[in-house]
């Protein structure tokens, strides 16, 4: 097979793929080959259409159609990942967790922090899966899911290319966390984060907040191409117990909350070695009020002097806010409030006399 025929065959493969509709998808294989021949013969700069250029264009088009299913990436030098789990109490009852790299060692860290915060009285957990980590191994996703799901549950399946059989991953232990769970996702959530969120929703264990994911729920393999470059491609697909998949579809959150990726990355970078609270809770500005008058000070005086000298104040440029975490806390607090408030809405209206206003029965609190 000569190189021109190979290029045409690759182009034909592109036409049979399933990308978004494009003009090339509307024509036949014969028309595609005719277009190649005409361009090579009559294009104004046909000398540019070498076999090398055709092959590169074909590979570039194929990778574009496969999107994150395959890509050529630079070989990264082996470096020790910054393995950690960001965990803290946002309130006395709401805990926050965020894995950084989805590594095996982080599973043990997550378990320790879950136990610690639950012992301190936390009843609700926010699991932040929005870290833009490199693709990981699905066994780690299964181990993290075991912290929240009962023993014996079929978590998901992994099906290899060309195989009818699938690897089954089941929960092998009792869960650590028994409270409310809210998971946060976005378009930068990696393959393990997407898998965790998808399984938690499928098992009705968590509500999902954030923005749609990209659908990269696959196991990647890599092949070295030449010095410094390698081909990374999807080799196995994650399937739910009913054999459904979110690959290239993505996960749609239960509550859609948009946050710019650059804002999120800035917040994560600033909270990695500290706390996320300054980006969640609003800081009240000091005012000259009755309490300040009694205390004999004026909180606004320093700001007035700085402003008079042309200096900027900290309030001039507010810190970024993680609106996704804020809305997750709102949701948890609302659910907690409603679960403790029982109302009886009397739907039986008394018959009214024509020309008179009906009697409205107010809602009556019902004691537990």
The order of strands across the largest sheet is 2-3-4-7-8-11
What gyration radius follows from the Cα positions, in whole Å? 28 Å
Order of helices and strands: HHHEEEHEHEEEHEEEEHHHHEE
Unreliable stretches, pLDDT < 50, 5 or more residues?
1-20
Distance between the termini: 80 Å
Helix content: 25-40%
The fold-level CATH name of the largest domain is 2-enoyl-CoA Hydratase, Chain A, domain 1
Number of domains: 3
Average pLDDT, all residues: 82
Q: What general outline do the C-alpha atoms trace?
A: globular
CATH hierarchy: architecture of the largest domain? Alpha-Beta Complex
**Major β-sheet profile:** 6 strands, mixed
Describe the overall structure.
The protein has three domains: 3-68, no CATH class; 85-261, 2-enoyl-CoA Hydratase, Chain A, domain 1, CATH 3.90.226; 264-339, no CATH class. It is globular, with a radius of gyration of 28 Å. A six-stranded mixed β-sheet has the order 2-3-4-7-8-11, with helices on both faces. Strands 1, 5, 6, 9 and 10 form a five-stranded antiparallel β-sheet that branches. The model is unreliable at 1-20 (pLDDT under 50). It is α/β, with parallel strands linked by helices and 368 residues long. The chain has helices spanning 3-16, 29-42, 51-66, 104-119, 138-145, 191-202, 261-271, 290-295, 301-308, 323-339, and strands spanning 70-74, 85-89, 94-99, 124-128, 154-160, 166-170, 180-185, 207-210, 218-226, 229-239, 255-256, 343-344, 364-365. α1 crosses α2, α1 (3-16) packs parallel to α3 (51-66) and α5 (138-145) runs parallel beside α6. It has ten helices and 13 strands.
């Amino acid at each position: 097979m000569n190189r021109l025929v190979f290029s045409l065959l690759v182009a034909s493969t592109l036409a049979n793929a399933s990308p978004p509709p494009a003009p090339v998808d509307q024509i036949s294989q014969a028309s595609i080959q005719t277009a190649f021949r005409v361009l090579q013969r009559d294009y104004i700069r046909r000398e540019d259409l070498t076999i090398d250029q055709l092959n590169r264009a074909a590979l570039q088009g194929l990778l574009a159609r496969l999107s994150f299913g395959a890509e050529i990436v630079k070989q990264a030098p082996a470096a020790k990942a910054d393995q950690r789990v960001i965990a803290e109490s946002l309130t006395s009852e709401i805990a926050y967790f965020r894995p950084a790299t989805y590594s095996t060692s982080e599973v043990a860290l997550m378990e320790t922090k879950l136990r610690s915060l639950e012992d301190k009285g936390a009843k609700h957990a926010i699991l932040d899966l929005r870290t833009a980590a490199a693709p990981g191994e699905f066994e780690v996703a299964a181990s993290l899911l075991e912290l929240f799901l009962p023993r014996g549950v079929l978590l998901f399946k992994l099906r290899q290319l060309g195989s009818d059989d699938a690897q089954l991953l089941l929960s092998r232990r009792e869960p650590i966390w028994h409270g409310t769970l809210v998971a946060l996702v976005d378009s930068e959530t990696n393959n393990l984060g997407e898998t965790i969120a998808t399984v938690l929703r499928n098992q009705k264990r968590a509500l999902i907040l954030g923005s749609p994911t990209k659908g990269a729920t696959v196991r990647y393999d890599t092949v070295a191409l030449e010095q410094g470059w390698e081909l990374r491609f999807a080799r196995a697909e994650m399937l739910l117990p009913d054999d459904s998949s979110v690959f290239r579809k993505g996960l749609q959150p239960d509550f859609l909350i948009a946050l710019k990726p650059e804002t999120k990355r800035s917040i994560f970078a600033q909270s990695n070695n500290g706390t996320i609270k300054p980006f969640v809770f609003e800081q009240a500005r000091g005012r000259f009020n009755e309490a300040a008058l009694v205390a004999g000070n004026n909180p606004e005086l320093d700001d007035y002097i700085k402003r008079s000298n042309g200096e900027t104040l900290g309030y001039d440029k507010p810190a970024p806010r993680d609106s996704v975490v804020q809305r997750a806390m709102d949701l948890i607090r609302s659910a907690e409030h409603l679960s403790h408030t029982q109302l009886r809405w009397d739907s039986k209206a008394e018959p009214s006399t024509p020309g008179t206003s009906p009697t409205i029965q107010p809602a009556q609190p019902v004691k537990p």
